[in-house]
Amino acid sequence: MRNILFIIGALALFSCKSMTTKKIEKEFVWEGANIYFLLTDRFYNGDSSNDINFNRTKETGKLRGFKGGDIKGVTQKIKEGYFTKLGINAIWMTPVVEQIHGGTDEGTGVSYGYHGYWAKDWTKIDPNFGTKEDLKELVALAHQKGIRVLLDAVINHTGPVTEKDAVWPESWVRTAPQCSYDTYENTISCTLVKNLPDIKTESNENVDLPPQLVAKWKAEGRYEQEIKELDAFFKRTRHPRAPRFYIMKWLTDYITEFGIDGYRVDTVKHTEEFVWQEFKKECDIAFAAYKKNNANEVLDDNDFYLVGEVYNYTISHGKSFDFGDKRVNYFDKAFNSLINFELKWNVKQMTEKDVFYKYDSILQNGLKDYGVLNYMTSHDDGQPFDTKRKMPYKTATMLFLTPGTSQVYYGDESARDLTIEGTVGDATLRSFMNWGDIESDENTQEILNHWQKLGQFRANHMAIGAGKHQLISEENGLIFSRVKNEDKVIVGINLPKGNKILEVSSIFKNGDRINDFYSKQTSVVQNGKLAIQSNFDILLLEKK
Prior knowledge:
With 544 residues, the protein is α/β, with parallel strands linked by helices.
């Protein structure tokens, strides 16, 4: 009896401890988040035993095969505090669903679905990435560290057809024509590229499950369970058994089962906009159910987060994307945020002052209550801001200090090489994470340190990404404030090294003790001014 009481007491203590570690005291809003985007297969190999599956052993084109990265690898880096030190409060992973088993060769050498965008079975995690248990562990640990988890949702297409992967039935997909992208219709009712079957998302016709999926589930011993769940879903929603609703059911299961916090949605403009309104509704229902059933696991009161990839959308578009013959507002009852394809060009063509002013003006007015996800490098943008990694400090400064949500692409913070010899197309952007440089190269460590300071400061102050921007001075560098409710900071960039005297009376009061987060020095406001002596050209000022 004593042993039983001890076990009960220990479990209660563990439960209380878990609740304590998961309680996040500082404010978090998605509009000011730091999102880390990684290709699951290219980040860190936490389990070498799952590196080869389904006999994916053909020689591939350069960087077009699986390289061993997995869910356990991401979890290991969460444990080590890598993301926390970088100020990351959300991780976006490429799709982890089971990929086509075969490979394709469209002139670039054999390619496998290492990137996650070639789904074969949305209901199962690809063994190259890991298991359901691995994903549960990752989400739980991330939440304990105050880090949200985004997965990547694909509803637009299946994986390509190969010798191992049959085409889905005609009731599910179209295999022609290929998109010409010159009108709205020629962007959505077509295949993105050759041999990428397009889901008939416009259809409301009841369709049977693909026979290859039925056979697969039966062989795996889970056919009855999957059918039972599908029946319950369609009974609750009263949706027709149309292709898109099957996929929505499978994707929202990752919310209720694992507690993910959001989805980055792929190829948004290639699908009818009403699809995303329907998806948003189902995600919200699933997230509410998860929070009700797992009250102790919930980080905050934020809604489920949906950020969309509307390729070539820019913040200058405002709420509507222009197809030429039609304008579509994807924020309407669907996305919280859209990926912004513009920042890298703004930073090249405008002054820092003008970039900050532009983004503040749009986000505080036309896009108020919505957001954009800013990036400088991505997995499929062949023109990154700093291709040769000659400006890693400026990349960090502008990414983290520009209003909006920030997206760090894995290796931005360590100047991972983007010019891999022998690659074709976007493969050069997808090399394995350069952990060796981080461990042994002093220059890389200095770059990472700069990213870490800015990232942590931004994570500590939602005012940086989501607050009101105000110019203070541009006489000796650029000095500005950001304010969100009681969160108030002052930032200075391009400042003279050595002694710096700033006018800070608009934010801080005389006698306030102010910390420069960058140099770790403190000073007291006197006569509305603050004096800081540092060897850096940047100040990140916060009240102690």
